[in-house]
C-alpha cells in the first residue's frame, strides 16, 4: 500500500501540466502588465483609456488602444527630451519627424505646443560643388576636367536630387559620396520605374478607398458599434455623395437607455475630407446656435458638427411628428438612424418614383403641411428640400438630409426657404398637381409672412430686406423680430 494514501482520482479535473501552464501564463501576464503599466499610465489624455465605455472585448481593439497609448507616451517623452536639448537656445532642433502620433492625428492637438518649422534641414550639408561650364578648373598640372572620376561621382550624387520626391535616396546627397556613372544610371532607371509603379499603386489605392468609402478611424468606429451589439451587420453602401457616405446595417439586440435599435439602420458617415465642406461654411457659421463654437474649431470638429446638427434637427422633426429617420446614435462624424425602406432596399427618392395623380396630390399636401410644421413647430428651414431629399415609403413622404437645415432667423434663412419653395412648387406643377401653389404663395403659406410682390425679383428683394431688418434688430436688441417668433400662426392648408 502506498504510504501517502490512495490518490483520489475523481477530484482531479485536469492534469498537473495543465495547471502548471495556466499558472505560468497567469504569472507571465501579471509580469507583463506590471512592466507595461508602472503605476503612471496617465501620461497623455488619450481618448481611449480615460474615455467612457471602454470596450475591452476585442483583442484587436485593445491592441490598437494600447498602441495609441504607447505612441502618445513615447511622444510625450520625446517632447521632454527636445525641450531639454534645446533649453532656451535660440537655435533649436525639432524632433517632430520622430513623433509616432502626428499632431494632426491627435484630437488633443490643439492644446499641444506648436512644433517648430525647420525650413533648412540642419543635418544637411551644402550641395557638393560641380565644375563650371567650361569643363575644367585649375591650372597647368592641377587641372581637373569634368571627366575626373571624383568630380563626376560627386556630380552624380547631387543629381539624385532630381529623382521623384518619393524615391528614398537617404542622406547620400549631403555626403561626400561618389557614384560611378554605371551605378548612377542604374539608380536613375530604377527611380524612374519606381515612380511609375507608385503612381499606378496610388491610383489603385484611391480606387479601393472609394469602394470601401471609409478611412481606418471610421472603420474602427463602425467596428466598435458592431462589437457593442448595437449593430448586427453592416451590409453595404447605399449612397456615396460629395459630403457623406450612407450604409445599410441590420440593428443589433443591445438596448441602450430605453432605446430599442430599429431592425434596419442607415449609417451616415460624414466625409472627413474637407474640401467639400468649405462651401457649406455659410450654413453653420451664421447659425447662432453654433456661433461661439465655430471660430475655435479645427476642420475635423466642424465636420462632427454637421453630424451633430443633423441629429438635433432630426430629433426636432421627430418630436413634431414629421416622418423622418429616427436617430439611433451619434458617434463623432457617424450618425446612425432608422432605415427608410425594407430588406436593404432604400425607399425611392420622390424624383425616382412614378406616383398616381392621386398619390401625387396627397404627397403635395403632405409636404405643404410638413414645411409648415418644420417652420412653426421645429423652427427650422430645410434648406436643401427637393425631390432628391424626399423618400416615398409606406404611402407617404419622408424628409431626410437635414444637416444643413437652419432656423428661419439665420441671416439667409428666408432665402433658403424661398429656394425650397421654388423646388417644391416646380416639382409638383410639372408633376401635374393643379392645386400646387406657386413658389411665392407657398413661401407665404409656410412662413406666415405676407410678402405681396407679384414677381420673383421684387419678392426676393423683400426677403432680403426682411433678413437685413432682422439682423439689425438682433444686433441692436439682442433678440429676434416678433414676426419670427412663433405667435403668428401660418394658415394650415389641407385637402
Ligand atoms: P447627402 O448629403 O449625401 O445627399 P443624404 O442624407 O441625402 O446625404 O443621403 C444620401 C442618400 O442615402 C439618400 O438619397 C437616400 O437614398 C439614402 N439615405 C439616407 N438616409 C437614409 C435612411 N435613413 N434610410 C434610407 N435611405 C437613406
Ligand atoms: Mn441628399
UniProtKB/TrEMBL annotation:
One of its GO terms (cellular component) is cytoplasm. Residues 117-127 have a biased composition (Basic and acidic residues). Residues 203-448 form the RIO kinase domain. Keywords: Antiviral defense, ATP-binding, Cytoplasm, Immunity, Innate immunity, Kinase, Magnesium, Metal-binding, Nucleotide-binding, Phosphoprotein, Ribosome biogenesis, Serine/threonine-protein kinase, Transferase. It is found in: Cytoplasm. Its EC number is 2.7.11.1. This is Serine/threonine-protein kinase RIO3. It comes from Buceros rhinoceros silvestris. Signal peptide: none annotated.
Amino acid at each position: 500500500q502506498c504510504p501517502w494514501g490512495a490518490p483520489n482520482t475523481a477530484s482531479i479535473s485536469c492534469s498537473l501540466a495543465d495547471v502548471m501552464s495556466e499558472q505560468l501564463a497567469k504569472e507571465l501576464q501579471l509580469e507583463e502588465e506590471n512592466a507595461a503599466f508602472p503605476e503612471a499610465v496617465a501620461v497623455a489624455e488619450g481618448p481611449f483609456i480615460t474615455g467612457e465605455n471602454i470596450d475591452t472585448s476585442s483583442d484587436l481593439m485593445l491592441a490598437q488602444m494600447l498602441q495609441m497609448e504607447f505612441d502618445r507616451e513615447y511622444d510625450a517623452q520625446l517632447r521632454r527630451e527636445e525641450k531639454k536639448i534645446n533649453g532656451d537656445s535660440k537655435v533649436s532642433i525639432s524632433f517632430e519627424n520622430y513623433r509616432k502620433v502626428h499632431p494632426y492625428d491627435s484630437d488633443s492637438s490643439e492644446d499641444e505646443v506648436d512644433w517648430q518649422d525647420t525650413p533648412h534641414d540642419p543635418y544637411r550639408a551644402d550641395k557638393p560643388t560641380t565644375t563650371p561650364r567650361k569643363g575644367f578648373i585649375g591650372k597647368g598640372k592641377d587641372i581637373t576636367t569634368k571627366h575626373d572620376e571624383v568630380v563626376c561621382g560627386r556630380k552624380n550624387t547631387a543629381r539624385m536630387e532630381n529623382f521623384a520626391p518619393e524615391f528614398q535616396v537617404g542622406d547620400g546627397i549631403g555626403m561626400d559620396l561618389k557614384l560611378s556613372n554605371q551605378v548612377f544610371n542604374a539608380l536613375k532607371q530604377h527611380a524612374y520605374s519606381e515612380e511609375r509603379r507608385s503612381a499606378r499603386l496610388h491610383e489603385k489605392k484611391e480606387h479601393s478607398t472609394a469602394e470601401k468609402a471609409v478611412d481606418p478611424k471610421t472603420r474602427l468606429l463602425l467596428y466598435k458599434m458592431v462589437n457593442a451589439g448595437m449593430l448586427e451587420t453592416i451590409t453595404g453602401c447605399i449612397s456615396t455623395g460629395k459630403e457623406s457616405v450612407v450604409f445599410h446595417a441590420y440593428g443589433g439586440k443591445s438596448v441602450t437607455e430605453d432605446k430599442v435599435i430599429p431592425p434596419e439602420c442607415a449609417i451616415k458617415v460624414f466625409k472627413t475630407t474637407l474640401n467639400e465642406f468649405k462651401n457649406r461654411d455659410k450654413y453653420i457659421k451664421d447659425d447662432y446656435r453654433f456661433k461661439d463654437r465655430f471660430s475655435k474649431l479645427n476642420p475635423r470638429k466642424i465636420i462632427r458638427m454637421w453630424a451633430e446638427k443633423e441629429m438635433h434637427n432630426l430629433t426636432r422633426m421627430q418630436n413634431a411628428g414629421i416622418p423622418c429617420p429616427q436617430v439611433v446614435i451619434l458617434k463623432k462624424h457617424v450618425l446612425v438612424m432608422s432605415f427608410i425602406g425594407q430588406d436593404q432596399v432604400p425607399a425611392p427618392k420622390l424624383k425616382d418614383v412614378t406616383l398616381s395623380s392621386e398619390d401625387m396630390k396627397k404627397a403635395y399636401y403632405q409636404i405643404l403641411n410638413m414645411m409648415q410644421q418644420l417652420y412653426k413647430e421645429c423652427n427650422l428651414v430645410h434648406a436643401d428640400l427637393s425631390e432628391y431629399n424626399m423618400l416615398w415609403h409606406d404611402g407617404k413622404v419622408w424628409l431626410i438630409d437635414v444637416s444643413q437645415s437652419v432656423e428661419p432667423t439665420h441671416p439667409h434663412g428666408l432665402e433658403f426657404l424661398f429656394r425650397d419653395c421654388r423646388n417644391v412648387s416646380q416639382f409638383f406643377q410639372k408633376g401635374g398637381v393643379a392645386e400646387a401653389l406657386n413658389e411665392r404663395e407657398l413661401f407665404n403659406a409656410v412662413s406666415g409672412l405676407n410678402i405681396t410682390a407679384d414677381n420673383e425679383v421684387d419678392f426676393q428683394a423683400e426677403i432680403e430686406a426682411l433678413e437685413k431688418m432682422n439682423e439689425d434688430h438682433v444686433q441692436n436688441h439682442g433678440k429676434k423680430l416678433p414676426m419670427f417668433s412663433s405667435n403668428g400662426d401660418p394658415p394650415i392648408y389641407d385637402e
